[in-house]
Amino acid sequence: MSGQTQRLNVVPTVTMLGAMKARLVGATRGHALLKKKSDALTVQFRQILKKIVSAKESMGDVMKTSAFSLTEAKYVAGDNIKHIVLENVQTAAIKIRSRQENIAGVKLPKFEHYSDGETKNDLTGLARGGQQIQLCRGAYVKAIEVLVELASLQTSFLTLDEAIKTTNRRVNALENVVKPRIENTISYIKGELDELEREDFFRLKKIQGYKRREIERQRANAKLFAEEQLAEKVSLQKGVSISSAHNLLSAAAEKDEDIIF
Fold it and tell me: Which of 137, 156, 159, 216 has the fewest C-beta atoms under 10 angstroms from its C-beta?
């Protein structure tokens, strides 16, 4: 974009000036609202980032514990543990459901785990490794909880990151493009209206001067006509020519102006 912000192509009228001022007010309000939205999303983004770091730190310990418990179960129950577990599992005991959370107009996906039905404890009474298998199961349930929480946080993190980028682009567009362009348009309209006002003022002054000169000309013509009439009257009364009557009137005007007027 060039250094000088362009203006909108509009007709410089008073109506358009009011419309541009209304658009500037709307752009200012929209910029303020988007700025607040960006700040709120940024705060939520940082909170989620802290939770992700904490969840990843705990996930290492949980996965290490679950893997170690599986090794213990295999050591106690032997190599047949896989067949024993598969025979006692009909449906998934832990399932995941999703919901949406609204943060400043942005819908964040949230994942939750829940138990579907009662957990069977058929393996508890086995002679070899029943109790250890249950402990292993509990460790992996804990690992699933941490993984589901981490997946929810990570998905929300990516969604918020994209929303913040989009909001910041809109804020920058309003601040650096839309508002300066409208302000330049308002300045252009005001300048054109002032120029039109000066032109109208000059036109009125010219018209008034023309009317004043016309009135003076009419008065001069009326005065000449009155002098001609008076000269004819004097010519008839004195029995002299028109030029002599004018001379008499001029001499009388030099002596006493009230004689003529």
Answer: 216
